[in-house]
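YM 10:42: Fumarylacetoacetate hydrolase family protein sequence, as discussed on the call
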Amino acid sequence: MYVFDAPEQASLAVQGSTDRFPIRRIFCVGRNYEAHAREMGKDPTREAPFFFTKPADAALDTPCTIPYPKLTEDLHHEIELVIAIQKGGSNIAESDVMDHVWGAAVGLDMTRRDLQGEAKKMGRPWDWGKAFDHSAPIGAIKPIAEVPSVENGRIWLAVNGVTRQDADIADLIWSVREHISILSHSMELAPGDIVMTGTPAGVGAVGTGDVITGGVDGVGTLEVTIGPRL
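YM 10:58: structure's back
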């Protein structure tokens, strides 16, 4: 018994099925493309990957409309390959990572860039810039057996039909196998965990009425409209 009704389980759609993928946690890899690291003013050397998180209920199915969030004047898009974990484990070897993967999708790490920038300057956590409501729109998850590759394939994003981000997931500084293995050496992964693998260069601001489209070849596409301010 709970003292009030428990919240609904956060979940995502599955391609070609009415079943849904239950979400436990959302992990995000920071600065995992060289060109994006440069546009953020950072050295793109192969330093150890770092992670931040979003709440499970920040995720929502696409296509969707999300409100322009509170407290920001600089809402940015970041297109990402998303990996869905089906089997938990600690200290997972790179060679075994794909045995733990249920599927892949394409998602957006929406970012209140002004709040993130303030946090960086003050040495504070990024939560207020990254982990807000509706900050992780994600397309339907494709079972991994149907995904041609998580090592190469075009990743792209357009705003109102104009391309802004256009790269290849082969450009990841730390590959899917590498950074999921490293993550599992920090904490035990569990079924339902989601890993957002980083964004390429070309991030930028969006406003009310803008329509974001994007995708990863062989994985899926998404469409997100920015609605009125909350």
